[in-house]
Each structure stands twice: as structure tokens, then as C-alpha cells.
């Protein structure tokens, strides 16, 4: 019978505990860029503001170069809409932390509330809306990583800042670079 070292047992315990709590453990392999283990507090990570309502997006994990996944949190203001779109390169998991909303995933319209989870495989049309009176808060995980850079490009560093003005051709080039498409 093979015995495990105390470090191996501790790592397996921690990974199992994190998975049980809904967190994700980073496992480094030959094809994965090295990511230093870290624990981030609620207000840590790169903050940018996006959309007409300047909703805060906090980039929590963003491996460089591209890794297996990235993670963001986003606060969506009441009435705000995330237009229907698809990702050509990434699968996406969205976990609703609080608030109420609605989402379109493929041909289905679903109600969102705290604890709801959406799985959106690459190439699937999806979008959402905050239908409640309070902020809709979620966690999104992209696999592989890379799409979190889109938020850096379209966002601002402060909620009152004016987003960069782009021509239609510049917006299309940005969308192509990040593999995001909108209907039409």
C-alpha cells in the first residue's frame, strides 16, 4: 500500500475542501502556465467599469500567458442588459451570488436568483438582464483564459471615466480579437 506524504494529504484535503465550498483549485500541469497560489479578498483583483451603467467587473484570476481558466466577478445594476452574444473560444460558467435576473442561453429563457448556475459552452448564444430592484452579482469563469482581457479593453479605471470611443471597424476588430460575436 502506497502512503502519502503529509504535504500530499494536506493538498488533497485543501483541494477537496475548496471544491466542496464551490471554489476552484489551480492544478499546474505541463501545458498550464505556472500560477502562484493565492487567496484574494473580496476587494482584491483588477477593477474595471463596463457598460452603459458602468458596472464594476473585478478580474480575480487572469493567468499570463493564457491558462486553463480565468475568473471575474461582476455587479450588474438594476435594469442593465448584457446583450446576447457568443464566445468562439471559451466555455463560461456563471454563478449568481445575489439579486434577480433573467438570461437567454441558446433558445431558453431562464430566471436567475442567488444560487443559480449557467453553463455556456463556446459557440452558444447567451445574454442577461438584471430584472430586480437590487444589484445582480455573479462570478464568471472562462475556460481557457483570455476573455477577461476584453473587459480591460472596453472598461475604464473609474466609474465616471468616459470609455474609449471606437469606430465600428475598431469595435469589430476588438470583437474578432477576443472571439466575441453579436447577432446580426
> What would you call the structural class?
alpha+beta
**Total number of domains:** 1
Q: So, the CATH homologous superfamily?
A: Jelly Rolls
CATH C-level category = Mainly Beta
Spatial strand order of the main sheet: 1-2-3-10-5-8
Spans of at least 5 consecutive residues with low confidence = 6-30
The proportion of residues forming helix, as a percent range, comes to 10-25%
List the helices and strands and how they pair.
Layout: H1 6-20, E1 46-50, E2 55-61, E3 70-76, E4 81-87, E5 91-98, E6 100-105, E7 108-113, E8 117-120, E9 126-130, E10 136-143, H2 148-154, H3 168-178, E11 180-181
Antiparallel strand pairs: 1-2, 2-3, 3-10, 4-9, 4-11, 5-8, 5-10, 6-7, 6-9
Task: Supply database-style keywords.
Jelly Rolls, 184 residues, five-stranded antiparallel beta sheet, 3 helices, 18% helix, 11 strands, globular, six-stranded antiparallel beta sheet, alpha+beta
Give a verbal description of the structure.
The chain has 184 residues and is α+β, with helices and mostly antiparallel strands. The chain has one domain: Sandwich (Jelly Rolls). Helix content is 18%, strand content 35%. It is built from three helices and eleven strands; from the N terminus they run αββββββββββααβ. The protein has helices at residues 6-20, 148-154, 168-178, and strands at 46-50, 55-61, 70-76, 81-87, 91-98, 100-105, 108-113, 117-120, 126-130, 136-143, 180-181. The strands form two sheets. Strands 1-2-3-10-5-8 form a six-stranded antiparallel beta sheet, with helices on one face. A hairpin with a 4-residue loop joins β1 and β2 (55-61). The longest helix has 15 residues, at 6-20. It starts with 5 loop residues before the first helix and ends with a strand.
Amino acid at each position: 500500500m502506497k502512503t502519502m506524504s503529509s504535504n500530499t494529504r494536506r493538498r488533497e484535503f485543501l483541494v477537496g475542501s475548496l471544491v466542496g465550498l464551490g471554489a476552484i483549485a489551480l492544478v499546474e500541469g505541463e501545458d498550464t502556465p505556472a500560477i502562484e497560489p493565492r487567496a484574494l479578498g473580496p476587494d482584491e483583483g483588477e477593477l474595471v467599469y463596463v457598460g452603459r451603467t458602468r458596472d464594476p467587473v473585478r478580474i480575480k484570476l487572469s493567468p499570463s500567458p493564457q491558462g486553463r481558466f480565468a475568473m471575474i466577478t461582476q455587479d450588474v445594476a438594476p435594469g442593465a442588459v448584457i446583450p446576447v452574444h457568443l464566445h468562439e473560444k471559451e466555455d463560461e460558467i456563471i454563478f449568481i451570488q445575489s439579486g434577480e435576473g433573467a438570461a437567454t442561453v441558446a433558445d431558453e429563457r431562464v430566471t436567475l436568483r442567488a444560487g443559480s448556475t449557467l453553463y455556456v459552452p463556446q459557440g452558444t448564444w447567451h445574454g442577461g438582464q438584471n430584472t430586480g430592484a437590487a444589484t445582480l452579482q455573479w462570478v464568471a469563469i472562462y475556460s481557457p483564459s483570455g476573455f477577461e482581457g476584453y473587459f480591460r479593453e472596453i472598461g475604464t479605471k473609474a466609474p465616471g471615466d468616459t470609455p474609449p470611443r471606437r469606430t465600428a471597424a475598431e469595435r469589430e476588430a476588438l470583437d474578432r480579437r477576443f472571439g466575441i460575436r453579436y447577432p446580426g
